[in-house]
Sequence to fold (614 residues):
Amino acid sequence: MSKIVEGLYYAESHEYVKIEGEFGYVGITDYAQHELGNVVYVDMPDVEDEVEAGADFGAVESVKAASDLISPVSGTVVEVNEALNDQPELVNADPYANWIIKVQLSDATEVENLMDAEAYKAHIGE
Amino acid sequence: MIRNYDKLIFELSKEGRMGYSLPKNEFEGYCMCCGIPAHLKRETTPELPQVTEFDVVRHYTNLSNKNFGVDTGFYPLGSCTMKYNPRINEEMAAHPAFTQLHPDAPTECAQGALEVYYNLAASLSELSGLSAFTLNPYAGAHGELTGLMIMRKYHMLRGDHKRTKVIVPDSAHGTNPASAAVCGLQIVEVKSTAKGTVDVEALKPLLDDTVAGIMMTNPNTLGIFETEIPEIAKLVHECGGLLYYDGANLNAVLGKCRPGDMGFDIMHINLHKTFSTPHGGGGPGDGPVGVRAGLEHLLPNPQVKKNEQGIFYLTTDEESAGCVSGFLGNFAVIVRAYTYILTLGRENVKMVGPLAVLNANYVKESLKNEYYLPIEGVCKHEFVFDGLADKSTGVTTLDIAKRLLDYGYHAPTIYFPLLFHQSIMIEPTETESKETLDEFIAVMKKVAQEAAETPDVVKAAPYNTPVRRLDETTAARFPKTTYKQMKG
Fold:
């Protein structure tokens, strides 16, 4: 049973975004980290890069596969989770505490296209 | 135990021991190295192991015993076409007429070798339905890159500079998007339907005047034949793009249908898969690229041609997509593949595809109660299970693959394609007998039974290999790649 956190917004491609004011914290879900297996590398964008909803902004590499990261929201990257450079396994340990990028949102209404916790739960069939 | 032999040749080294001695200087008073400029002379002794010839022979023989190859046992590695490599191929490739030929020999001294090249290219044209082939690219992905360079050059020569997108199905081999990216093209993914084939409706909105072409594998990575090819070819051609055929799975249809007849413009063939030349750790590949009529001038330089007197010569074309290799491909591989085609002959080459398909379907149908088959129906040369049918055991695809090693099999391809979470991809090839397949099926069933009854046994496999299960995370993150690192 994967952990799903209430109050976050979820994408079909298994990224979440946690909204705090004009910022969004983007990471991968517990379901995604579980399916990927042990994460060995997180490829992250640079600060000030633009991300676009539905477009890839990086990749997560595990012992099984390399998987693109698709941004659920549009905006500017204001911070990346530097800790993941040395400790990519943090994504496995707690994917919700260890977000990957912090985005200054350019369109706060975009989250309306995403799923809530309940819908995501149905999406992954749990 | 010899099985656990794990020495490096340097560990056998003993000061002063040697397997070879240089002849004495017979020119008394003449300094052998005095004519060499000082900056070309090394100042330190090279770090070479000091061993006898016997040490070397025994060392490498012991190491080679640790290999698992298609010569050792069944190798059902999906998408790799690990068929038997007939020994006559080796015999021909080792012929001194080929091995002693200098790559820079003038063409009048290399007519026989050029004839082999020319004839293999002609055979591939006939088998694929395309107009002309280059055998210069060194392997499959190199062939893909060459094909995409041809595609790009085609558009550029027409003055059409905005075609920068390449459409790739979500089931494609990872090399497809990688090759497109290396070629400076942008990748657009098209989804598959529930049946595992390209979704034509999802493709339509992607087609516009920025599309350079589409890359397809047929049968695709799931071992499913793409039935909508005529429609896809029509749509892509109407929008001005070209169709690229990835020949990775050509073995399934060899001699039965031809990419050129399906409407493809460019393709590559993996000689090391379809045409029985060694690969993986066993030897280099070769990735011939073919084009339809009208695109021949774009093939890489040099090209091998034959004049009216039957003399072979090399040409270069100014409009060529470029030069992709130093010489004429991996020539020894070309000799092997040509030998294979001649050995089979026109009639038998038509049996390759049907027998490969029969073997794959036999294994699939025999195991579909124990393993979950996500896409029902007749497959081509390979198929994909999505882990065990019984998901409650907690035994994963990785565990199954590791357990198979204990039973003396190479593992199938796992966790690819990415469409399923627990992919096990099996390709038996046409060269395996029913007895071999039955033994493999029995072992796969036994592993499924073990997973149900003693899952911990499967989860801790393998037991019989020189090393037990590796810590893949550490291996990926903190690899020790040199002897000094290993010794700390």
Residues 331-367 of chain B form the longest helix (37 residues).
